[in-house]
Design a protein that fits this description.
Blueprint (H helix, E strand, L loop, with lengths): L7 H4 L2 E4 L4 H4 L2 E5 L4 E2 L3 E2 L1 H10 L9 E5 L8 H11 L5 E4 L5 H11 L10 E5 L8 H11 L5 E6 L2 E7 L3
Parallel strand pairs: 1-7, 2-5, 5-6, 7-8
Antiparallel strand pairs: 3-4, 8-9
Helix pairs in contact: 3-4, 5-6
Length: about 170
């Protein structure tokens, strides 16, 4: 008689949240305004307005768009506003940030859009190991969102977790 291997993790009521998978499901793009600066310092309004009008913004369709300026230049606020006026309606979202803040804002936008009802009174494992960088801020934000909703929150892998929160009965 053969001993059958039983995957108890698969049979458990644990629900795993893999934030790394969101990188594939919710694509994002970065637009660096630096490429339109004269000598990487000055934005010329006439040239920039011409670019805004002629550029094919549809390449960002369906993505979260992050506008950055990777050089130390003073950019007038209206320049960012012009970009938003062209992409609104074709992108999932558009935000201004620094290059180092892109992932934090990206994950935050996704977490803010989650419908928490599917985790109501469930045992949730927030996956911890990933090949893609998931910022600590995303773990903090998803935990804050689930406290009071989920029955319990754990961190790690379903086979090896660290308890984080358990709802009082």
């Amino acid at each position: 008689m053969e001993d059958k291997i039983i995957n108890r993790v698969e049979q458990s009521s644990l629900i795993s949240i893999d934030m790394e998978a969101w990188m594939e499901e919710e694509p994002y793009a970065v637009y660096d305004i630096k490429q339109h600066l004269f000598q990487e310092l000055i934005l010329r309004e006439k040239d920039f307005r011409g670019f805004i009008k002629e550029f094919d913004w549809t390449i960002y369709s369906g993505k979260h768009l992050f506008i950055v300026c990777s050089t130390d230049a003073i950019i007038p606020t209206w320049a960012y506003m012009l970009i938003v006026s062209k992409v609104k309606g074709m992108v999932k979202s558009v935000q201004f940030c620094s290059e180092k803040d892109i992932l934090e804002k990206y994950f935050s936008k996704i977490i803010q859009g989650l419908e928490v009802e599917k985790w109501l009174d469930k045992k949730v494992v927030i996956k911890g190991c990933s090949k893609v960088e998931v910022p600590v801020s995303a773990y903090v934000e998803i935990t804050e969102l689930l406290i009071g909703v989920a029955q319990s929150i754990m961190f790690g892998e379903p086979c090896s977790t660290v308890p984080i929160y358990k709802k009082l009965k």
